[in-house]
Amino acid sequence: MNFRVYVAGGITGLSYDEATQWRDEVSRKLSPLGIAVYSPMRAKEFLAGTPKLHAIMDGYQDPMTSTKGIVCRDHQDCVRADVLFVNFLGATKVSLGTACELAWAYDRRIPIVVVAEPDNIHVQHPFVIEMSDFIVRSVDEGLRIVKHILLPSEPKAEQELRNGTEL
Asked: What confidence score (pLDDT) does residue 83 get?
C-alpha cells in the first residue's frame, strides 16, 4: 500500500517543536501501516529551536521557506494526498494556510478529517464545517477514521489490542 496523508494545521506563531511534535506522532502511528505522512514542516529541520515561526521567515535563504516554496510544495503534497488530516486542537487564531489546504483538498474530493474542540474558532465557520467530511475531538479518533478510509480492514494489531491480546 502506498497511501498518502497530508497533515495540515497551524504553524504561524508556534514554536518549531509545537508545529512538528503532533505531526511526528501521526507519522509514527501511520507509517507502520504503509501510510506515508507528508508534512509542511519536512525538510525544514534547520528551523529546529525556533521559538516562534512566522508565515514569512525572513533571514533564511532556503527555498523551502520562501513564499513560493511553501505554497508550491504544500499544494503539490495536498492535492496528491489520499486524505487530508487537519489538527486544529488548541488553535487561538485562524490558520490561513490550512484554510487554503482545506479548499484544495475539497476541490479534488480528497477526504478531509478535522480534529478540533467543539468551540474551536475554525469549526465555527460554514466553509470548514461543510468542507470537512469528519470533525472529531482527538487525534486518535481522527487516525482511526483515516485507517478506516484507507485500509481494507482494521489493522490486525489494532484488533488484537482491542481484544486484549498481547502483540
From this structure: 98
CB 43 within 8 Å of CB 75: no
Joined grid coordinates for residue 67: 513564499
> Does the pTM exceed 0.85?
yes
Kindly report the backbone phi and psi dihedral angles of residue 47, in degrees, each rounded to the nearest multiple of 5, phi listed first. -85, -5
Q: Are 132 and 112 in contact (CB under 8 A)?
A: yes
What is the Cα–Cα distance from 41 to 87, expressed in whole angstroms?
A: 14
Residue where the block lists cell 514554536 = 15
In terms of Cβ atoms closer than 10 Å to its own Cβ (0-12, 13-18, 19+), residue 73 is middle
User: Where do the structural domains in the chain lie, given as residue ranges?
Assistant: 3-162
Nearest Cα neighbor of 33 from 6, 9, 7, 4 is 4
Which carries the bigger pLDDT value, residue 22 or residue 2? 22
Rounded CA-CA distance 167/163 in Å is 11
- Decide if domain 3-162 falls under CATH 3.55.50.30: no
Task: Indicate the SS3 state at residue 37.
Answer: strand
d(CA 38, CA 4): 7
Tens-place pLDDT, residues 30-80 = 999 999 999 999 999 989 999 999 888 766 778 888 899 999 999 999 999
